């Protein structure tokens, strides 16, 4: 089929292509399409002239308007830092109870603290601060070292078993691995510990009495004679059901046999004093039922 031929129905010339009797018309591009193509090219040329656009060897064309988005971002960040520095300095200088009484400061704490927790604490304690195996919950009232403001701030500052020179040290002995108790004695002690928490281990009174003796000889020096824990040592309360590693037969056997040594980083060199205070306020609010 010749290109010069015209379609008898539309009058358009054909392209010369034919498929099973179907011919392709050589129609013009709609004017609207040409309009937008031209406008787009003109806009691109104008943009190239006015804005940074073309990369060069060591730099790029700056454009007639001289707009630099990197500098704009730096200026905005600097302005935000300056604004933040005003209230952050106030938070760093005030005790936590004074901060809680200041509505404006607490508005900043409420905005910043959840992000601080998410970035630095949630990986271990969970996004809801409910903890998990090996990581204590922060939403209950079971504190290893104490839940008052100063204690929480100090724990955040120095960590637990961390390289910080003032760190808190806490370690449970490996009674089975180090040969202080045999497997049978460990199971008896585990039954007694479960009874302290009000759990029914199915142990006989005689077995629990033997467990109490083992507890007094091996555990009471850290956990207290009544098993309620000693916060000065970071020894947990065994009379509640807030278990860090679990309260099942298997978990307790593993804990007593192999010991435990938790770890928390020291945040003194990672977070500012104001950031640690905001975290402390946020953590205590979680223990009290969450931010208002």
From TrEMBL:
<keyword id="KW-0677">Repeat</keyword>
<feature type="binding site" description="covalent">
    <location>
        <position position="222"/>
    </location>
    <ligand>
        <name>heme c 2</name>
    </ligand>
</feature>
<keyword id="KW-1133">Transmembrane helix</keyword>
<feature type="domain" description="Cytochrome c">
    <location>
        <begin position="108"/>
        <end position="197"/>
    </location>
</feature>
<feature type="domain" description="Cytochrome c">
    <location>
        <begin position="206"/>
        <end position="287"/>
    </location>
</feature>
<feature type="binding site" description="covalent">
    <location>
        <position position="124"/>
    </location>
    <ligand>
        <name>heme c 1</name>
    </ligand>
</feature>
<dbReference type="Pfam" id="PF13442">
    <property type="entry name" value="Cytochrome_CBB3"/>
</dbReference>
<comment type="subunit">
    <text>Component of the cbb3-type cytochrome c oxidase.</text>
</comment>
<dbReference type="InterPro" id="IPR032858">
    <property type="entry name" value="CcoP_N"/>
</dbReference>
<feature type="binding site" description="axial binding residue">
    <location>
        <position position="264"/>
    </location>
    <ligand>
        <name>heme c 1</name>
    </ligand>
</feature>
<feature type="binding site" description="axial binding residue">
    <location>
        <position position="125"/>
    </location>
    <ligand>
        <name>heme c 1</name>
    </ligand>
</feature>
<feature type="binding site" description="covalent">
    <location>
        <position position="121"/>
    </location>
    <ligand>
        <name>heme c 1</name>
    </ligand>
</feature>
<keyword id="KW-0349">Heme</keyword>
<keyword id="KW-0997">Cell inner membrane</keyword>
<dbReference type="GO" id="GO:1902600">
    <property type="term" value="P:proton transmembrane transport"/>
</dbReference>
<dbReference type="InterPro" id="IPR004678">
    <property type="entry name" value="Cyt_c_oxidase_cbb3_su3"/>
</dbReference>
<protein>
    <recommendedName>
        <fullName>Cbb3-type cytochrome c oxidase subunit</fullName>
    </recommendedName>
</protein>
<dbReference type="InterPro" id="IPR036909">
    <property type="entry name" value="Cyt_c-like_dom_sf"/>
</dbReference>
<comment type="similarity">
    <text>Belongs to the CcoP / FixP family.</text>
</comment>
<keyword id="KW-0406">Ion transport</keyword>
<keyword id="KW-0812">Transmembrane</keyword>
<keyword id="KW-0479">Metal-binding</keyword>
<dbReference type="GO" id="GO:0020037">
    <property type="term" value="F:heme binding"/>
</dbReference>
<keyword id="KW-0679">Respiratory chain</keyword>
<keyword id="KW-0560">Oxidoreductase</keyword>
<dbReference type="GO" id="GO:0016491">
    <property type="term" value="F:oxidoreductase activity"/>
</dbReference>
<dbReference type="InterPro" id="IPR038414">
    <property type="entry name" value="CcoP_N_sf"/>
</dbReference>
<dbReference type="GO" id="GO:0006119">
    <property type="term" value="P:oxidative phosphorylation"/>
</dbReference>
<feature type="binding site" description="covalent">
    <location>
        <position position="219"/>
    </location>
    <ligand>
        <name>heme c 2</name>
    </ligand>
</feature>
<keyword id="KW-0375">Hydrogen ion transport</keyword>
<dbReference type="GO" id="GO:0046872">
    <property type="term" value="F:metal ion binding"/>
</dbReference>
<dbReference type="InterPro" id="IPR050597">
    <property type="entry name" value="Cytochrome_c_Oxidase_Subunit"/>
</dbReference>
<keyword id="KW-1003">Cell membrane</keyword>
<keyword id="KW-0472">Membrane</keyword>
<feature type="transmembrane region" description="Helical">
    <location>
        <begin position="32"/>
        <end position="50"/>
    </location>
</feature>
<dbReference type="Pfam" id="PF14715">
    <property type="entry name" value="FixP_N"/>
</dbReference>
<feature type="binding site" description="axial binding residue">
    <location>
        <position position="223"/>
    </location>
    <ligand>
        <name>heme c 2</name>
    </ligand>
</feature>
<dbReference type="GO" id="GO:0009055">
    <property type="term" value="F:electron transfer activity"/>
</dbReference>
<keyword id="KW-0249">Electron transport</keyword>
<dbReference type="InterPro" id="IPR009056">
    <property type="entry name" value="Cyt_c-like_dom"/>
</dbReference>
<comment type="pathway">
    <text>Energy metabolism; oxidative phosphorylation.</text>
</comment>
<keyword id="KW-0408">Iron</keyword>
């Amino acid at each position: 089929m010749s290109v010069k031929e015209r379609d008898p129905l539309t009058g358009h010339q054909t392209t010369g292509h034919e498929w099973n009797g179907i011919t392709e018309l050589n129609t013009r591009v709609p004017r609207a399409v040409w309009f937008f193509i031209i406008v787009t090219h003109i806009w691109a040329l104008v943009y190239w002239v006015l804005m940074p656009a073309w990369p060069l060897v060591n730099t790029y064309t700056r454009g007639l308007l001289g707009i630099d988005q990197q500098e704009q971002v730096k200026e905005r960040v600097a302005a935000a830092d300056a604004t933040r520095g005003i209230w952050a300095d106030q938070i760093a200088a005030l005790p936590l109870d004074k901060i809680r009484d200041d509505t404006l400061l607490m508005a900043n704490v409420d905005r910043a603290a959840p992000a601080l927790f998410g970035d630095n604490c949630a990986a271990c304690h969970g996004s809801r601060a409910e903890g998990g195996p090996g990581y204590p919950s922060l939403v209950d009232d079971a504190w290893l070292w104490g839940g008052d403001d100063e204690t929480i701030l100090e724990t955040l500052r120095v960590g637990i078993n961390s390289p910080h020179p003032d760190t808190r040290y806490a370690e449970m002995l490996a009674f089975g691995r180090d040969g202080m108790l045999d497997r049978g004695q460990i199971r008896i002690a585990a039954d007694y510990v479960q009874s302290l928490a009000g759990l029914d281990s199915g142990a006989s009174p005689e077995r629990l009495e033997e467990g109490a003796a083992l507890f007094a000889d091996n555990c009471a020096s850290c956990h207290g004679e009544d098993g309620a824990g000693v916060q000065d040592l970071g020894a947990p309360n065994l009379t509640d059901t807030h278990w860090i590693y679990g309260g099942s037969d298997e978990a307790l056997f593993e804990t007593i046999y192999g010991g435990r040594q938790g770890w928390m980083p020291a945040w003194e060199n990672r977070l500012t004093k104001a950031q640690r205070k905001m975290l402390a306020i946020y953590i205590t609010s979680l223990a009290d039922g969450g931010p208002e």
